[in-house]
Amino acid sequence: ILTKDSVTVYVSAIMWYKVKDASSAIANVDDYSGSAKLLAATTLRNVLGTRNLGDILSERESIAQEMESSLDDATDPWGVQVERVEVKDVRVPEQLMRAMAAEAE
């Protein structure tokens, strides 16, 4: 994912959801599970793309809350409720880590 300050980061995130209306989940979307995964990936890119690396590293909880709200609103017509989103891991490429360490010295 490319951040606002043009840094590439690798992010692992988890989304918990449940089907609250089975008929809507079947009638309103072809594959609610696959669609929810794609929507989560797109939302993650959109949210992180508006933030600097420092913000991403320090504000993981607020990012997760923003994503949860956005995803829940988007999946509501599908009969799917997003219960929780968690940003598990944010990794920076090794070359950038070395450059940052050298600059800190």
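The record above closes out task 2.4. Task 2.5 opens with a second protein, given below.
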Amino acid sequence: MSARDKHTASIVMSAAAFSAVSLIWIAREKLRGRMGLCSPADGHDNQISTRGESLLTPTLPYILDYVKCLQDQCNPYSNPNGYIPLCMSENKLIIEHFASRLMQCQLFGDKSVYCYNNTLGLPPAREGVAYFLAKHFLFPEERNMSFEEALQWISPEMIAIGSGASSLLSHLALSLTDAGDCVLIPAPYYAAFDADLRIFAGCKTIPVHSTNPSIGPSAEDLEKAAVEAEAKGLRVRLLLLTNPNNPLGTIYPSAIIKQSIGWARSRKMHTILDEIYGLSCHEVGNHGFESGLRILKNELGDDVHHIWALSKDFGASGFRIGTLYTQNNQLLSALANLNIFSGVSHPMQIMLSEILTDDNFVYHFLECSREKIRYSYELCTRRLEEMVIPYVVAKAGIFVYADFSSLLPSQTAEGEAQFASLLLDAARIIMTPGMAQHDVKPGFFRICFCFITPEVLEMAMNRLDKIVGKIRRYHWDDLKAETLTDII
């Protein structure tokens, strides 16, 4: 298949994956335009319940713009003027490599995949996850660790497999909190966490702001956020730490992770360790990432819970496979019931087991992934430097957090939204707004550089460069159609 055909196929698959979402939203917007949303006070028969209406808010504030982009996505050969989405944290650069290995999996020969089984996961899959976590998170230097040795450190009985990290996070919140309880999250943070923790568990998210977000929160930062929440009559129950951080791409020092967990334990709180980007570090060996499993010497107790997924490090978010490692047996019993509604299909669990225990493939795959991530990161940051746009130096992840605040028409949320609209309309680019990620300073945007090929990324940066130049040259009031004709 030629590069052109591959690119076209990728766009078709992306558009198809979101076609249902787009049709729902288009239909809804048409309804809103014709008659508005009904409410119980209107005296009309509602199509859904009040509870259902509470679910109509998009889980990501920029999802509609993203869907719009997918309907007319840039193809360097057949549609060079199309939209370029830079807001979705997916690594599409490694899909072909991963797919070639998946073609070798034998998923349907074992009769167990056709039948009910443990809702926490098939035994081979839970064993595969335990082996993988022991080898790549707990003891990453022990490349020759045997399967049996690994399972002595992490018991498969302490593993749960669910339909994505978001699902497991939601189930954790539902099992560990009561409605109205608070979850502390160092800011800025992944925009969908708010919905993940609210929709089923009814939790309130509290951003924890710190002097230097890149290195994580201090105990004082955490205490301040907790005290302020409690002053409002709220109960603080959970601490959620994402390391490596999304959207910053930085790695928290081990001392910060240990200190944060210690602080949570002093308040009898639970800590969730989200390490979904743990194997997407840009360098080998000296990147600085140390898993919380290793920091705690595998002594998680009943109050620390580890989440990982296939979505980022293996570029397979569409597979909807997440993993949980906890030493809390009562929690696992609760999750066994919840997971009836969000389990992973058994053939996919067999695939998971086969992939995670294939050491030769995993080590080679992760190294190839690092090389591709690093190449696109360096391309993106080099262009930002040429534009004199500051950015947070990333050591992991598949995004760059850049500061466009100097270009805003006003240093407000409205100014950030106006800049985002200009990017979408004039440059046909969408990036993740910082305010959607609870940043206190308007003007930061997350650029997801692995969602597109380096060729398309170069096109996106060219458009961005022109927009930056136009804003610096003209007053915002003069940025009209005639001054923006040559952006694309």
